[in-house]
Amino acid sequence: MIFLRYSTSLALVCSLVSHSALAERTAAARQPVSLDGTWDIVFDADNEGRAADWHLDGVFSSLAEKQEIRVPSCWEEFEKDYEGVAYYRRKFTVPKEWDGKVVRLQFDAVNFISEVWLNDQAVGFHEGGFTPFTFQVQQMLKPGEENTLTVRVAGPILMTDKTIEGIGKMETPQWRGAITGGIWQPVRLIATGDSYVEDVFIEPKIADDTATFHLTLQHAREKAETVEVEIRVLSGKEADSVVSQRKSITLIPGVTQESWKLNIPDAKYWSPDNPHLYRVEVSVVSGDAVSDNWTTRFGMREFTIRDKKFYLNGEPLYLKATFFEGLYPNGVAYPDSREMAVREIQLAKDAGFNMIRPWRKPPPPMWLDLADEMGVLTVGSLAIECMDFPVESARLPGWVANEVRQSILRDRNRACVVQWELFNEIKRPVLMQLLRPMAMLARQLDPTRLILDESGGWAQGANMYLPYESEPMKFNDVHFYPGGQVNQTQYDRLLLIGKTEEEQKAMGLAGLEIPGKNVQPNLMSYLSELGYASWPDIVGNNAMFRERGNPILPATVTTTNLEKQLNHAFQRTGFDKAFPDLQAYCMEEQRIHGIANKRMIEATRANREISGYCIHALTDGDWILGAAILDLWRYPKTLAYEMTKQANQQQIVSVRVLPRNLYAGQQAKVSVTGINELQSTQAVVAVRVESLDGDTVFTETLTKEFPCGISDLYTDLLKTDSMSGSYRVRVDVKDPSGRLITSNERAFDVFTRERIGTPTGQVSVVEIGNTVSSHLKRNGIETIPFSTEMDLSCPVVIGAITKATPDFRKTVGEVKEFVRRGGYAICLDVAGPSLTWGAPNPEPKPKDDDGSWSWVVPRVLADSDVDQLPLSGKLYTTQGNYTSRNHIVTDHPVFDGLPTNVLMSGVYENVCASESICRPDRGQYISGVITYDQQKNMDSSLRHYNGIGDVLWAANVLLVTEGDGKILYSTLRILENLGKDPVADKLLYNMISL
Q1: 149 and 265 both lie in a single domain
Q2: Residue 241: which residues within 8 A CB-CB, separation 6 or more?
Q3: CA-CA distance, 994 to 244, in Å (whole number)?
Q4: For a Cys staple, 904 with which of 721, 727, 848, 908, CB 3.0–4.6 Å?
Q5: What is the DSSP string of 130-164?
Q6: What is the enclosing helix (H) or strand (E) of 337?
Q7: Residues 887, 891, 894, 898: what is their CA dihedral angle, to the nearest 10 degrees?
């Protein structure tokens, strides 16, 4: 039923009376019978069951293909990757005393179309895969005898070309993590008297410590009847009575709606620190019998926005959320066990998160029960669309409205659910058209919560509706995945969110691209997606799949294949020489993941305009395999978890050394930003600069206030004239008694002329512009024009090739011929179409506002033909987003004097490639990436819950033999960093001297 606000002049009389007699009569009032357990199922792959009357018990019994299935479960656990129709059957008995009662059959969720028969009699029909539905069945039921329940389920179609009930591939509302078919949530029968509670919406208000109970009562008789209705509010484990109210109500046949307002004495407010829950019982007494007794839990809490901040129960709250796919190793969409659900929520809280953002799927009621009890804020997320899906059909608007209505009605009494999130990253007119109507439907159903119309704000910028408001406030809801190298530029971009042009100029950051879409200055800002990725412990995970996994489920199949493919990829590229142990490699990826998450969070928290963030993601699974800080089995991913946890603490400092890599003699700006969510306190700030060997270069200690909020705790310039090598700035913040409040450190490197080195001899340069030649000349390196007749010992550097003319292309061809005769060339720029986030034609699509490529993806991921380099190679985007794309550095002369047999980070953060040569057909890999093919997940013909694409590899430094000579191809960001970062200089000089 839709919630309506009522005004009443009735005098409500509250009394605290003895309820012992009523309690005795209530015990038998509402009688539930679970229908969970073992059912029979027949898979109807050819959709012939309707014509053959498979819903009839006698016909069903004659079918040889029937087998047993557990309910609740998704049918993919029993029939690998099944899509289509299936018939379920369950035999049961109910007490003879149920004769004359109103009996309702409740399904918590069945995906997608359900047709129900009881004892061969039609019961009802439902569309929608993620929300509950109910039918009255007393006319078909046989109390005291055996009953037969049959359910025909038409599941979602995603991988095959079937059309069922007029619904084709990818048309149903869906969740990318697990498209579960069948009866995947619990089923039950409920018996009551003729007068019963259909629904109660509880409206708590902490302003006056009241709770208003909006009752929807049903009366099944033909004539009106006066009943006694009582509301009791209980508190604590001992179920102490807090308040009660009772009055006589005349129920008309059908629906009667009432609203009662009760004062909650000594109200205890629900929060993550104190998740206090009240229980409410609503009893309906008809004559001397209790006709129904309805119960649920609720919390006294308020969540809203004031002064561009979130407020919980009148206190400002900085949101630290984590994105939650809700995929499980065996249950797929439903938790493997209650213990697994408890573990993931507790680990989120232990890591410092106060909110979980379930993504595009309402979690099962059991999971939300735990969120209520354990104290974690949640976002009410609806399965109505998922990044360009479902495919448009005339039914889509109706399905969307249905999911909004049923999801909100199901969960609007939850203490943990504080906001409804309606859409995500939408681009299609049919969904844009629904933004306002669905927001108004959500407001009508629930006046008490925040409503976000679109996460990401892709359509027109996000709108947030405050409680009891129907006019939205503009709101910056930002999605940003900067990748694994959170260098100075990416850090600064996070500082710009919400800033005006004048503020950007004052910060010296004017012209830098601001993350997100439709982001405006002077608006409240929230990063609802932020993070990086790393492989889970593939080896350890596979051991668990062998021990506890289901061999036909995608998670088992994907991870098993992944280990085999990764081992092949390491051998194929030679990267196994750098990382011979796959398990150790996964741990190293998790370290890089942790560093990236930590820096992103620090930068976000250092921006006063930002009110919170949501880290992508809490748990691994499906096509976000690697994006999370917990693996699919709910085990922390070592440093990815620990470093994210460090950045989430209430008191932290962010340390910056600018620039990250310095030329000896260049001054470094060292700054320490304090972020304190607690009360201001006096602190002793110790800043120490030391070499990695532990030798102290500089130290300074200050006693100053560590204020609540964001503050500049330290800023100074560091002289590097006498320094060379690797260093770190270590900052300890202690209270006056010496207790450590927080600490942090930041590494940097100083390069002397000797450490950088200088090539000897002449160098020939071919480029558009003069970036390389002018740099070499400034550093005393002689350059000469390229000539086909010049000495073969002279290396040729091919610099920028953007906007190459026909004459320039001809020259590049001549350089290749020079190489074939025994020469050596270095290509610092490689052009070609991007094979992820790009178009399959030679011209890549322009980047989106957030820096990611437009999602137009080729169907076939082809290897790079080295002969086509550097002007028309195939490049793979390897900057990383929520996919692990870490760059491996081997022990090779190109990297002399720099860390080798490592993953790029730290000293490499500016030069690390954003695109790499996709699976070159020949050549020696010196540096590159091993990741997986994300395009499979963006292709509507393959989009399903069945995991990631195949492992692929790409090179960012490749040495290729051409005839008697060699060409070194590089996609490292050397050109844009020459003369700015000594690592770029050193890499170029190493390449020239090869």
Answers
A1: no
A2: 16, 19, 232, 233, 234
A3: 85
A4: 908
A5: SS-EEEE-TTT--TTSEEEEEEEEE---SSS---B
A6: none
A7: 80
Bridge partner list, 311: 304, 316
d(CA 696, CA 500) in angstroms, rounded, equals 41
Same domain, 844 and 923: yes
Q: What is the pLDDT of residues 235-283, one digit of tens each?
A: 987 788 999 999 999 999 999 999 999 999 999 999 999 999 999 999 9
Instruction: Answer whether 607's CB lies under 8 Å from 516's CB.
Output: no
Tokens of 559: 């991870």
> For residue 318, what are its two tokens?
């900085």
Beta-bridged to residue 876, according to DSSP, are 916
Tell me the C-alpha distance between 132 and 110, whole Å: 8
Average pLDDT score over the chain: 92
**Separation CA 518–CA 497 (nearest Å):** 11
Tokens of 93: 């008995």
Question: Which DSSP string corresponds to 509-576?
Answer: -TTPPPSSSS--TTS-EEEEEE-------HHHHHHHHHHH--TTSHHHHHHHHHHHHHHHHHHHHTGG
Q: What is the DSSP code string of 626-650?
A: T-SSB-TTS-B-HHHHHHHHHHTSS
The verdict on 691 and 776 lying in the same domain is no
Gap between the Cα atoms of 522 and 504, Å rounded: 12
CA dist 568 and 570 (Å) reads: 6
**Tokens describing residue 151:** 């359910």
Secondary element (H or E) of residue 935: helix 935-938
Write the pLDDT tens digit of every residue in 890-906: 999 999 999 999 999 99
Report the CATH number at residue 90. 2.60.120.260
> Interior CA angle at 127 toward 123 and 132, to 5°?
75
Residue-number span of the structural domain to which 707 is assigned: 665-751
Q: Using 50, 70 and 90 to split pLDDT, how confident is the model at 946?
A: low
Look at residue 591 and give its three-state secondary structure: helix
- Can you tell me the distance from the alpha carbon of 360 to that of 628, in angstroms, rounded to the nearest whole number? 17
Residues 791 and 808 in one domain: yes
Is the same domain home to 159 and 144? yes
What does DSSP assign to residue 906? G
| Half-sphere exposure in the Cβ direction for 869 (13 Å, CA) | 34
| Residues 537/586, Cβ–Cβ less than 8 Å | yes
Flag whether 653 is in a domain.
Answer: no
CATH no. for residue 258? 2.60.40.10
Distance, in Å, from the CA atom of 448 to the CA atom of 303, rounded to the nearest integer, reads 9
The reported pTM is 0.94
**Residue 140: both structure tokens together:** 């078909």
